[in-house]
Amino acid sequence: MSQALMARLDRLLANLGYGSRRDVQALIAAGQVVLDGAPLKDAGRKVAVTADLSGRMTIRGIPVDPPAPLVLMLHKPLGVVCSHKEDGPRIDDLLPKRWRIRDPALSSVGRLDKDTSGLLLITDDGDFLHRVISPKRHVAKAYLATLDRPLTGQEAALFAAGTLMLEGEDKPLLPAGLEVLGEKQARLTITEGRYHQVRRMFAAVGNHVTALHRERIGGLALPDDLTPGEHRILDAATAERVFAEARP
């Protein structure tokens, strides 16, 4: 069994976003940091950084945030952006403010544009992030699309053929699955992440997406009880469900 990582208490809490080293040293001196029921007074004490730390340590009576690696799911609402280069409220605004200064930093696993809602993963685990977005993994992503015009009945075969070319590109898309849900509604499952891919695929067949919602990434679905703007921290086993339906 591998030995748990040990970290100085003040450095650990600073890396989790609870303030500067001086800020967290003041918290510790005031007895506001409690481990296994006992207040900690030594900022230089080495603490085992284990997955169960949130169940053992509190700050001001509140469980400490999970240490890295952290993976969470967010139900991204419409109108919120993932990139700092775009205008508008950002996904950062939906998370605890202190998380903006966590080290390692949190990053979204891919992006959803401003006009797309649904499941978004956020992590400080670079290995997990790259495994999800790697073209070699072919992690499937399912979107619920509402369309401007009725489907013609030809779209499913075209999307599944693996021959569709998007405007401005020279490589055809990989096969994608289309499930017709109504005259103007469908579920599209893709294994790539090209720029605005879903919208461009429907544009290529003469239609326009009026609403888009991501329901699932791999084997991980957005829960019905996670409302827009809410997030949920995932344990390691739940996060790995992303790869349950991924091709090797």
Walk me through what this model shows.
With 248 residues, this protein is α+β, with helices and mostly antiparallel strands. It folds into three domains: 5-63, RNA-binding S4 domain (Structural Genomics Hypothetical 15.5 Kd Protein In mrcA-pckA Intergenic Region, Chain A, Roll), CATH 3.10.290; 71-135 and 219-243, Alpha-Beta Plaits (2-Layer Sandwich), CATH 3.30.70; 141-217, Alpha-Beta Plaits (2-Layer Sandwich). The chain has helices at 9-15, 21-29, 53-56, 126-133, 155-161, 197-204, 236-239, and strands at residues 5-8, 33-35, 38-39, 46-49, 57-59, 62-63, 71-76, 107-108, 116-123, 141-147, 177-182, 185-190, 209-217, 220-221, 231-234. Strands 7, 8, 9, 10, 11, 12, 13, 14 and 15 form a nine-stranded mixed sheet that branches. Strands 3-2-5-6 form a four-stranded antiparallel sheet.
Strand count, sense and barrel status of the largest sheet are: 9 strands, mixed
Could you give the order of the helices and strands? EHHEEEHEEEEEHEHEEHEEEH
**Overall radius of gyration:** 22 Å
Beta-strand residue percentage: 25-35%
Fraction of helical residues: 10-25%
Total count of helical runs of at least 4 residues: 7
- The global form is elongated
Which class best fits the helix and strand makeup?
A: alpha+beta
CATH-defined fold name of the largest domain = Alpha-Beta Plaits
Could you outline the blueprint of secondary structure elements for this entry?
Blueprint: E1 5-8, H1 9-15, H2 21-29, E2 33-35, E3 38-39, E4 46-49, H3 53-56, E5 57-59, E6 62-63, E7 71-76, E8 107-108, E9 116-123, H4 126-133, E10 141-147, H5 155-161, E11 177-182, E12 185-190, H6 197-204, E13 209-217, E14 220-221, E15 231-234, H7 236-239
Parallel strand pairs: 9-13
Antiparallel strand pairs: 1-4, 2-3, 2-5, 5-6, 7-9, 7-15, 8-9, 10-12, 10-13, 11-12, 13-14
